[in-house]
Fold these 2 entries.
Entry 1:
Amino acid sequence: MTPILPGLILLLLSAAGSAVVGRDIPGNAIRLPSEASRFFRSGEDDESLGTRWAVLIAGSNGYWNYRHQSDVCHAYQLLRTGGIKEENIIVFMYDDIAFDEENPRPGVIINSPDGDDVYKGVPKDYTGENVTVNNFFAVILGNKTALTGGSGKVVDSGPNDHIFIYYTDHGGPGVLGMPTLPYLYANDLIDVLKKKHASGTYKSLVFYLEACESGSIFEGLLPEGLNIYATTAANAEESSWGTYCPGEYPSPPPEYETCLGDLYSVAWMEDSDIHNLQTETLHQQYELVKDRTANGNFAYGSHVMQYGDVGLSEDNLSLYMGTNPANDNYTFVDKNSLRPLSKAVNQRDADLVHFWDKYLKAPEGSVRKAEAQKQFVGAMSHRMHIDHSMKLIGKLLFGIERGPEVLQTVRPAGQPLVDDWDCLKKMVRTFETHCGSLSQYGMKHMRSLANICNARIQVEQLNEASAQACTVFPSGPWSSLHRGFAA
Ligand SMILES: *[C@@H]1O[C@H](CO)[C@@H](O)[C@H](O)[C@H]1NC(C)=O
Ligand SMILES: *[C@@H]1O[C@H](CO)[C@@H](O)[C@H](O)[C@H]1NC(C)=O
Ligand SMILES: *[C@@H]1O[C@H](CO)[C@@H](O)[C@H](O)[C@H]1NC(C)=O
Ligand SMILES: *[C@@H]1O[C@H](CO)[C@@H](O)[C@H](O)[C@H]1NC(C)=O
């Protein structure tokens, strides 16, 4: 059996770190909302003042992605403690974590090293195969006839209501993951939000989004005037980060071989957990989360961004999350989270960290050790295959010199990733037809496929180049025949 060198993973992590490109954060000037009179006390639900709704969604499955479902469970508990009614919270999670054989505490999910169980009582509205883009959109739009499976709970909101949407998972330029393919594409989400606005069924909507390149979901796409305020864990061109990971500080209890949370997600939730949210504004939370997620110098952190109607961030958090009465006396204190900087793991490498930790801890010569090695090597080889194929395709399409440059071009801030989203989707299917599933890791190549569209390459040309580049079709879980196409 070939031992895997620890150097390999170090090399990998540092390569990922160096890909993080810094960018100035646009001015965060706050415009005061024009209709200040619409603000009201929001401790208790007053019928005439609207209902608070929440949609919580984890887009992944698999034990190595423990943290996304754990984040969503934590968010659910937070909202319930804040007084939001269960009937107004819609939860999407694959629900394969709590009873996974790898879970050291069966039936329990934690979101921080010494945290309590956050799984208990979480409703199973949309689980397993029912966690889909189609159901997510139908729930936001309150369209029950568009649902396939699930509990049937939707955001049945009215004009005075407030909606909070929280999504956490892997992503890539212009896309967010889903456990059942296809993925969610930014333009489709923006269309749904515009439709929701046009239906006049909310007063304001807040969207918190954790994923790699999450800024690309709103950058140049979310207009002002929809009464939507969004913040994202990362800008349009950098990864977001897992936290409470094995081997990092602070680390999970030793029996956990997986990250427990995500940096941006844990930052907003641990802030909301302890404060009086009637007196803390969205903006105050944004500033604090931005600080904590930057994690010192961005080497192990990302740029938290805000989009849409930034003026809404003058609202109190309780308007969206309620507030825990026990925190009435804990008002917001700037820099309250005087915690040491944490080590974090790039979202895209968290699966490798899991396989690696499992490998290290498994007894010498055990079936478990062999299995962990196989998983690690399998994931690594597919990464190399996808990276290599994409690079080659770039060279075939644009020449040896220009290829890499065209694929890596990042459009200036304020511009969307791609002009023709249907083209992007066709390119994704074409690539996957020849080269296999992009998979979670391969989402990072969405920008390359988008740039191929922006360069007005025709689908037939990519078809030909992919056929040349990918002579061997990946099998098993890496085949696009296994789970379907990402678009
Ligand atoms: C928001 O906070 C301010 C300042 O503490 C307070 O006066 C106001 O009543 C709060 N509004 C809501 C809607 O809770
Ligand atoms: C709800 O979804 C169904 C099925 O997709 C669609 O035909 C209908 O137009 C939708 N209703 C509204 C109000 O958008
Ligand atoms: C999906 O929803 C249907 C209808 O509610 C349900 O019967 C089925 O069990 C759900 N599937 C999963 C995996 O939860
Ligand atoms: C907050 O402080 C006030 C005044 O000291 C006290 O009466 C009240 O019980 C406290 N509330 C909570 C929830 O601790």
Entry 2:
Amino acid sequence: MQKSIENNVRDGRNYGASRDGGARHHAGVDLLTNSRDYNAWAMADGVIIKTISSYWEGTSAIFVKHGGLYALYGEIKIAGGLKEGGEVTQGQVLGNTIPNTKNGAAMLHLEIYTGSERTSANRLDPTFAQYLPAFTP
Ligand SMILES: [Zn+2]
């Protein structure tokens, strides 16, 4: 049975958290689910920019343009049939959470950008985004 990630789950690691002893910083927020098979929903209507089959430690990611903002839904297993250039609708299942192969944690790792390049200059703190319901692009 598929379950949904609850609204505003913020028990994961925050945006900007130190990584690698401060050498880098967490580019998104982690919405921990502690098990597989939680759905990751599209926050708004959008167009798929890219699917990343090998993202991090056995997980995948999907990068979606939502109006003027771009969201990376990471560390999931992408749902079947989703391809670059395809349209998604708000609430559509983009994938589901799966345990990573490093430590078995399962989450949606969510990043938000103001442009199609995933650079620090374009990156926003995703904490503003109501994961459900949708944010306003
Ligand atoms: Zn993360």
